[in-house]
Amino acid sequence: MPAKASGEVKTRIIHSPQKNGDIYVLERKTVYDPVKKYNKVLSTKLVSKIPKGTEISVPTRPKRTIKSNEHENVSNETLKKTTFQTNQIIASRKRVGMMNIIDHIGKASGIDATLYANTDIGTAQKIISLARYLLASDGQSLPGIATWQYNHPLPYREGISEEVYHRLFKDVGLNESLQQNFFKGRCDELNGGAGIAYDSTTFSTYSENQLEARYGFNKANDGLKTVKYLALYSIENRQPIAFTKQPGDLSDVSTISNALSQLLALGVSGAEIITDNGYYCEQNISEMFQAHFDFITLAKTGLKWIKSEINNHQNELERLSSVCPYDPTTHGITVMLMRDFVKVRKYSNKKTGVAQGEEETFSRRVYLHIYYNAARKVDEDQAFERGLLSLKKKLEEGTSIEDLNDAAQTRVKKYLVIRTWGKKMVISFNENACAQAKKNHGYFTLVSSKEKDTFVALSKYRKREYIEDYFRSSKQHADSMRIRVWDADTLRGRMFVQFISLCYYEYLSETVRTMKLSLGVPNGNHDHDLKQNLDQEKKLKSWLDNTPIYLQLQWFDAIEGIEISSALQSKRWTTEMTIRDNLFIQRLGLKSGF
Fold first, then answer.
1. What is the pLDDT of residue 377?
2. Of 291, 113, 266, nearest in space to 190 by CA
3. In terms of CB atoms within 10 Å, which end of the chain has fewer, N or C?
4. Which helix (H) or strand (E) holds 291?
5. Are residues 537 and 582 in the same domain?
6. pLDDT reported for residue 72
7. How far is Cα 320 from Cα 331, in angstroms, rounded to an integer?
C-alpha cells in the first residue's frame, strides 16, 4: 500500500535555460496532489541568473512592491475589480510613433540583444531607456527625462529619476565586463579585413574631481581641462565598435598600443587600422606589424625619408596617368619600399643571441602613396603667408619673441629676419626658407602595409572622416559637449550610455542613407516601377534629403497610441499617417500603422 501524501510544501532550485544562452535560477514551491497524482506548482520565483558563457550566478533586480498611490503600478486584478465596481473607463495615451521606430532600430541592429545578453534585465532596460531618450530628444540633458517619460513608452517602466541614472552610471562605470562584452558583440559583426578608423576627441570640463581632466590639446579651444575620448569605428557599416577614455594631456601617438591590445582582446584579427598623422611614428608602425594588423596612416611630408621620395617623384605626378579617376583635382603615385623597424624582444632568441628586453631590427615592405592637389597648395600657401604676416605684425607692435609660444618662436627664427638700429626694428622675410617651405605645399602622403593601389588607399583614408562625423554627432546629439558628472567611474558609465545612443543614431543614419539610394529607382519589378509608386518614393527621398535625422524622428512623435479599457472590452488605436509616412516606416522594416 503506497504511503499517504504528507501534504508538505517542498522548495526546489530549478535551472531553466533561455534562448539567449542565459540560465535562470528559479525557486519553485510544489506540493503533491493525491487526487491528480502529480506535484502541483504553488509558486515560481526568479532569484538569479547565470549569464551566457559564465558559471557565476548574478542576483536579479527584486520585483517592485505595489504602491497604492501609483496608478500604473496597480495590478491587473485590482484594475479589473475597480472597473467592474465603478463601471468607469481606464484610458492611457502615449506618443508611440517615434518610440516604435527607435525600438525597431534597437532590435534590428542587435544593440538591445547584446545588452540583455551581458547584464541583468533591470540594468539593460535602464541603459536602453536613457539611450533612447538621448536619441529621441536630440541630446537634451538627462534631467528632462523626469517628465518626458510620462508620455513616451520606455523599456524601464518603473520610472527614471536623477537618483536612478546617477546610480546606474556608477554601477556601469565599475562594470568593465559589461562594457567589454558589449564591444565584443559589436566586433563580432565585423567582416574579415574590415577597415577600422581610430581617432580621438576631447571633452571639456570645469570639474576638479575628474582624475583624467588635465590641460592639454583642447579641440574646442575653450581653455578648459579636458578628458580624451578615443574611439574605434567601422568604416564599412558606419558603426562605432568601442571606446575608451584617457587623461587629456596624453598625445595621440602614445595610444596606439592600447588600441591594438583592446582589438586583440575583443577577438578582432585581420582588420585594417586607418589613422591620421597624429598617430604616425615608427614605433606605432612597428607595433601594428607585430600585432599583424594592416594599416593606412597619414604621414607628415616633412619626414626626411618621405621628403626625399617626394622630390624624386615630382615629375611623375605631372603625368595624366597619375590623375585620380574619381577626383581629377588630385594626382597620385605609389612607391614600394623596404623599411627597417625596431621591436623589443619579449623573449630571448637563442638563434640570434638577442636577450629578452633587448631591441631587435626587422624589415617590412611598405607602400608610400604620394598625392598632389593644386587647390590644396593654394590653401596651404595662403595659410602659411597669413601666419607669417600675423607674427611679423605682432613683433612690430612690440611683442617680444620670448612672449610667443615655442612653435611661434621657431617660425620666427626660421622664416623672419630681424634687424635693429637702436630702438628701430626692421623685419623682413627669409625668402629662401619661405620658398623651400612652400615647395612641398599641396602634397600629402599615406603609408600602408598592404594596400598597393594608390586611389583605393585614398578612398579608404577619406572614409576615415566618418569617425569625425561620429564625434560631431556625439557632441550634438548625445549631450557630451560637457562632462556633467563629478568622478571618473560615473563618467565612464555616462559615456557608455551615450555610446549606446550613438550606436542607435549611426545605425538609423546608415539605414536612411541606404534607403535613399533605391528610392524612385526602377528595379525591374512591374508593381514597384509604376509611375505612381516611383513618384511617391521620390517625394519621400526629397523629404529625407532635406530633413535631418532628429527632425525625421520628431515628425513621427506626433503619432499617438490610445488604449481604453472598460468592464466589457478594450480598444487600441493610433494616429493616422500619410502615404509618404507609411512608405517610410515600411522601408525601415516596420509594419504599417505600428
1. 93
2. 266
3. N
4. none
5. yes
6. 47
7. 8
Give the three-state DSSP class for 248: coil
Other C-beta atoms within 10 Å of 482: how many?
15
Q: Which of 236, 233, 242 is nearest to 194 (CA)?
A: 236
Nearest-angstrom CA–CA distance, 444 and 448: 14
Backbone angles phi, psi at 309, to 5 degrees: -70, -35
C-alpha cell at 517: 539610394
Is there a contact between 438 and 381 (Cβ–Cβ < 8 Å)? yes
Structural domain contains residue 33:
yes
CA 589-497-106 angle, to 5 degrees, is 10
Name the residue type at position 503: C
One-letter identity of residue 525? N
Is residue 16 helix, strand or coil? Answer: strand
CA 89/CA 570 separation, integer angstroms: 9
- Residues 334 and 448: their CA atoms lie apart, in Å, by 10
What values do phi and psi take at 420, rounded to 5? Answer: -130, 140
Averages of pLDDT over runs of 10 residues in the chain (594 residues) are: 66 80 82 74 81 74 49 52 60 88 94 94 95 94 91 91 93 94 90 85 82 82 85 92 89 85 87 90 89 92 92 92 95 95 77 74 94 94 93 88 87 90 84 90 95 95 92 85 80 94 95 94 89 93 94 92 76 85 91 62
Count of the separate structural domains present in the chain: 4
Residue 395 identity (one-letter amino acid): L
In DSSP terms, 27 is beta-bridged to: 13, 45
| Dist CA 449 CA 367 (whole Å) | 6
Residues 453 and 308 grouped into a single domain: yes
Q: Which of 174, 196, 231 is the last residue in one of the domains?
A: 174
Residue whose C-alpha cell is 550613438? 502
Q: Quick one: which of 578, 507, 581 has its CA closest to 544?
A: 581
Domain membership of residue 145 as a residue range: 95-174
465 phi and psi, to 5 degrees? -65, -15
Cα 478 to Cα 480: distance, rounded to the nearest angstrom: 6
Instruction: Give the single-character DSSP code of 189.
Output: T
Q: Which helix (H) or strand (E) holds 413?
A: helix 406-415
Around Cβ 318, how many Cβ atoms within 10 Å? Answer: 9
- Residue 117's contacts (CB-CB under 8 Å, 6 or more residues apart) are 20, 21, 22, 51, 52, 181, 185
- Residue 141's SS3 state is coil
Nearest to 24 by CA among 45, 6, 49: 49
The residue from 174, 195, 221 where one domain ends is 174
CB 184 within 8 A of CB 267: yes
- C-alpha 330/C-alpha 311 separation (Å) is 17
- Residue 402 Cα distances to 202, 384, 405, 408, 426, angstroms: 29, 21, 8, 10, 18
Whether 445 and 534 map to the same domain: the answer is no
Report the residue count for the chain.
594
Q: Give φ, ψ of 462 to 5 degrees.
A: -65, -30
Cell 580621438 belongs to 200
The answer to whether 332 and 458 have CB atoms below 8 angstroms apart is yes
